Amino acid sequence: MQFHFLIERYTIGSKIILGILFAVLFYMFLHYALKMIEMLYVMKYKKPLYFHFHPFIKKLTKQQQTLLKENFPFYNKLNQKQKKYFQHRVKSFISDKYFIGRNKLKINDEIRVLISATAVMLTFGFRDFYIGLISKIVVYPGEFYSRMNQKNHKGEFNPKLKTLALSWDDFKKGFDVYDDKVNLGIHEFAHAIHLNSLKERDVSSTIFSDSFKELVVLLSSDENLKSNLVASNYFRNYGYTNQYEFIAVIIEAFIESPIDFRNQFPLVYQKTKQMLNFNFAGY
């Protein structure tokens, strides 16, 4: 009797173990199949299979929403569904980063929301929008002395320390004139996204880095396009310092002057749109 009982228990236990093993194998197969499907989709369309999937939407407070409405033109052009996603991402980004005020500057909602909204705007077409290479955001009242190169700076990104530093006065000036293609917050976050894309292997980072490589090849192979870019004075000369400054300057133009950018340099615009997976000229 006891022997049959042990055999029965052993049989039930084996079925449970086999069931768990089957479930794990099925999950692994499904995960691999979805990755393969997305890889094929990315190869064909140069964008993620999906990028907004937020089962539990977080909302900003009424005061924080007002800050966006009054200070962030990008937010006001979004539809209601996009605004919900944008709010969710801003709140999530704020929670993920450590904000530090320097030289007696107190961190408040305005600082947290507007700086985070700038990062979210740039990564709104990404699936992973956190920019993992940033853990701290240091905010100064104005220009600050940088120990990295012993000069005064308005902004800088230190990937080794995972720290983005900004002058609050100059950050705000970047939004005073919205179409001058000069925006400190956009510029510094563009640096961070670029370097983050070289480190991370998520689908959005891969598309960003691969698309920039394609842009570099395009400019290298088309001397007329390259010379026209320089002669036009459409982009700041600072952008031709190196590839890191170039990418930051073209992203400033892409966001602040998208229609002019698209009309003057459609091929460069297309590659920049592909990098960010968002059409700023048509949203």
Brief summary of the model shown:
The chain has 283 residues and is of the alpha/beta class. Helices cover 61% and strands 8% of the residues. Strand 5 (155-158) and strand 6 form a beta hairpin.
Count, helices = 12
Q: What is the correct CATH architecture of the largest domain?
A: Orthogonal Bundle
Strand content: 5-15%
Mean of pLDDT: 88
Sheet with the most strands, sense and barrel status: 4 strands, mixed
| Helix/strand order | HHHHEHEEEEEHHHHHHH
Q: Which spans of ≥5 residues are poorly predicted at pLDDT below 50?
A: none
CATH superfamily of the largest domain: Glucose-regulated metallo-peptidase M90, N-terminal domain
CATH level 1 name of the largest domain: Mainly Alpha
Helicity level: 55-70%
What are the SSEs and their pairings?
Layout lengths: L1 H44 L16 H10 L1 H4 L3 H17 L1 E4 L7 H14 L13 E5 L3 E3 L4 E3 L1 E4 L4 E5 H6 L10 H16 L3 H19 L1 H10 L10 H14 L1 H7 L1 H11 L7
Helix pairs in contact: 2-5, 4-5, 5-7, 7-8, 7-10, 8-12, 10-11, 11-12
Structure description:
The chain is an alpha/beta fold. The chain folds into three domains: 45 residues; 136 residues, Orthogonal Bundle (Cyclin A, domain 1); 74 residues, no CATH class. Helices cover 61% and strands 8% of the residues. A four-stranded mixed β-sheet has the order 1-2-6-5. A two-stranded antiparallel ribbon has the order 3-4. The chain is globular. The N and C termini lie far apart (74 Å). The mean pLDDT is 88.
What keyword list fits this structure?
61% helix, Cyclin A, domain 1, alpha/beta, globular, single chain, 3 domains, two-stranded antiparallel sheet, 283 residues, four-stranded mixed beta sheet
